[in-house]
Design goal:
Blueprint: E1 2-9, E2 12-19, E3 22-26, H1 32-41, E4 51-53, H2 59-62, H3 65-71, E5 76-78, H4 80-90, E6 98-100, E7 107-109, E8 112-118, E9 126-131, E10 136-140, H5 148-154, E11 159-163, H6 168-172, H7 178-185, H8 193-204, E12 210-214, H9 223-237, E13 245-248, E14 258-259
């Protein structure tokens, strides 16, 4: 199994996951042309995808969705409330292009077993746990705080993409208006570096060893601060260098490709 972020941050989000001939895209937060270009660099194309999973309706996750829907026959999956909202917003996308997740899953999409789980945000939002033959990738971004549902969705994943959106001091002292600062800091906002560090510590105790920090703010964070906060908390917990990997997803470019294979039984 391998994955990479095509873009990650407030200006756009998209994640590519592949195993064998099974290929998933999570979110379409780039123009369709740019999504196509970046997928081509990976040796594939939008039309070759097995499915597109949507976390939620915000434009930094759906920028290229309308053209994607018009240009491919790839099934598009999401929560019912999200899909209904997008039908209204986009106008030109017919409802029959969408498939709503019903119940709690898991769902089989190509060779993957996909488990969506709820994430606390200011609109209906999902995280995803994707199980393949060779391993498990899980992700949760755009969350105001960590719930037990989020922990359950991420626990024991071979590789976890988690949100490390902002440095609290930079946010409070930064240029955002008060209402936006309150929204980001709320339980329906975004996860801080410190909260991400706590999450990673809890996940290490549940078997996770590899983390990618994503959705960093361009105004209220720096990659260095995110790494320092998360790795500092892991060191305080007693995790020694080399036992766990922590990387940062680039905001505007594609990340390196992360490949992994399960060498242990899932928890």
């Amino acid at each position: 199994m391998r994955f990479c972020t095509l873009v990650s941050g407030s200006s756009g989000n998209a994640v590519y996951v592949e195993e064998g001939s099974s290929r998933l895209l999570i979110d379409a937060g780039l123009s369709f042309r740019e999504l196509s270009r970046r997928l081509k660099e990976l040796g594939t194309s939008p039309a070759a995808l097995s499915g597109l999973l949507l976390t939620h309706e915000h434009s930094d996750h759906t920028k290229g969705l309308a053209q994607f829907a018009r240009s491919t026959g790839v099934p598009i999956f999401g929560e019912r409330a999200t899909l209904l909202s997008l039908c209204v917003k986009l106008g030109t996308v017919m409802p029959d292009r969408f498939t709503a997740f019903s119940g709690q899953g898991p769902f089989q999409i190509a060779g993957f077993q996909v488990q969506p789980f709820s994430v606390p945000h200011d609109v209906p939002c999902l995280g995803f746990r994707i199980e393949g033959v060779s391993g498990c990738f899980a992700m949760a971004t755009d969350l105001g705080y960590v719930t037990q549902t989020v922990l359950d969705g991420l626990r024991g994943a071979d590789f976890a993409l988690v949100e490390s959106n902002h440095d609290v001091d930079m946010l409070i002292g930064g240029p955002y208006p008060p209402y936006l600062k309150r929204r980001i800091l709320s339980d329906e906002g975004h996860l801080s570096n410190e909260a991400c560090g706590e999450l990673c510590c809890r996940l290490v105790q549940q078997g996770c060893e590899h983390f990618l920090l994503g959705h960093l703010s361009s105004v209220n964070n720096l990659p260095r601060l995110a790494i320092e906060a998360v790795c500092g908390r892991l060191l305080e917990m007693g995790v020694r260098p080399g036992e766990v990997t922590v990387d940062v997803a680039p905001r505007l470019e594609s990340s390196p490709i992360f490949g992994f294979e399960r060498l242990r039984a899932p928890i």
